[in-house]
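Issue: copy button drops trailing tokens. Both records pasted manually instead:
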Amino acid sequence: MDQFAINIIVLGKSGVGKSSFCNYLFDQAGLFETGSGKPVTSWEKNFQSHTFEHQGHLLNVFDSVGLEADNYERWLKQFDSFMQQRRARPMEPETWIHGAFYVINASSARLEPVDVNLIKRLGQDARIPLQVILTNADVAGDKVEALQREIHHLCPGVSVTPLCSVSVRRRGGQSTQAFGRDEVLSLYLEQSHAFLSKRLAAMSCLNFKGVLREMRNTVVAKIEQADLSIFRIADLDLDTEIELPDFDEVFSDLKGFDDYLSSFGFVGDWETSDELENAVTRVFDDFQGEMESRFKEIEDGFESDSLLRKVGALYEAAKIILTLKSTMIEWLDEGFGRVHAALDQLFIKYAEDDNFFASHLKGCVLIRPKLFGIF
């Protein structure tokens, strides 16, 4: 099985220590070029990535040009283009952006409107895991707590992690050790697992619906092509007349929720997998029970002492026989429709207010639209 990389973007104004943070976080001394308050990532290298391995996970880290007053419009245009490209294939999770680090220099003790705007765009609009990293936390003193309070006030729910990315020996023999790396990575992987679990579960609902839709169309085509005339009803062998597809083969290309999580290096042990399978199985079992009850009711009618019930049973049986094709298709659509409705409810639960799949949903072709709540 191919291993997918977790895609991370690193953003922030020039001179806040993005490159030093990346070198420290991913233990890659010198790979990310550092400078002294000046832009070191060129526009040609904007949003280019470096790949690392950490605790069994592949990490793709996309570095960015530092934000400055005179490049904001250009930077924002490239950022929006980059994010749009990463949303272009919503059914391919390896192309998504899975999280972001927004870096602020804690010693500056300033949270500017551009910072707040981008933090909100990432956390609230893009709905991806986000950590605000406060660099130079070793020398910032009380400014760190003040910045944390301000960020939590203006951007509720955003995680803020103080960090020092370099060890420094100061006058008098004192030294400052780098800190924060383990806290940042541990929290990020926890956030990433939760994020991927929900979004992959929503995607699995759509994948499942697509496979069921193809299966339904294949079975209906078989029914419509079959010779089910009333004159052959006594000799009719449906198994021979309607050769159904191999359902194992139909579902073989449907990559499971657990498989996707494993591809990103996470153990697929969340309840979501069982919830998806149980929901579909329960609907099919309930529908099968109802169908058996319908036929049992007709059978009981024929065996009844009541003439009225016998006539009613004969009428129901005749109606089924005379309209066998349309009846079979109607029952099929009813069963599949119920499964789709159950998947709709699960999709709403998993996606919540994340509109990431909106463009994909617009292109869905539905069998019977009135049965589907959201598509």
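Record 2 (pasted manually too):
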Amino acid sequence: MAREGVRPSYDPAGPDNALRGALQDLRTGRWMAMRTLLADTAQGWQWTQRTQVLAAAAAGTDVVRAWLTEEPGSVHAAVMHGRVSVERALRAQRERHRRTHELWIEAWDAAQSASRTAPQDPVPWVCLLALAQLDPEQRWEEHRAAAPEPMLPPGPWGLLAEAGKRDPYNREAYHRMLQFLYARGGTGRLAEAAAFAQWATGQAPPGSALHLLPLYVRVERYRREGGHDAALDLHWVAEEAARESRRALESWFAHTRAAERSPLDLNHLAHALWGSLQFLDAARVFEEIGPYFTPPPWVHRTPGRDRAVDVFVQARDRCRAAADGSAPRH
């Protein structure tokens, strides 16, 4: 890979050129490229990932509605309608919009409908799981099912299981479960999230992206503690932090091919290895990242997205220097 100092920037498609083309078409109000892309996408990680990225881009448009109107029998259009509806509800909640509850119910209906239209697809169940974070008080029965492990709290475990039946260890489903646990609020709830992440990694086979979940919880804890504080760097060099990053490297990175790796996961792994002073291993991950920077987790190290790129570049250069033998390893 070229080592020139090109400044990275965020691209939601990452290295997925086919997805990038569909996104460009979508932004001009057209849906044909999206339909073609989804027809050519196999079930699994890529299917879930592509539908999520497309929905984020389509949520502010009527493109999916136009597709569904034109092809009311399209299974993929029904799934994307559920995706877009959920994205809108989550955005409304973040913005404290007065229509949040209305959009939540619409999204729940759309996701339920998609689950019937596409009974073998995990995405409608991932959508329902995503909506659970809008119910932190767990008023809905499906959001307070008993956990499979006594040390874990009640939650939308049935929804997670339904997604798992269709795509075992679905990456997004487990991240949505984490978001539900975060939404319940309180510093103590992070202990539940950490316990969940450890439980999930214990269930996951080699190569599963679930092995990175503890890294995400660590970033969330750092964010809640305020971040941007040199004193908090001990958060990353602690023995447990180093162990988590090493486990993710050995259990996920070492068992996957480039096409199976999310840029967000790669950025979290590089960040964790750099933060725990494992520069040589971090350099390997930075090479895999290439130009595909993602704002999280770097944005939590410094105020402002532009400065997050600076942190990324500084970390990458430090690790490359160590790998090239021009700087000490620790």
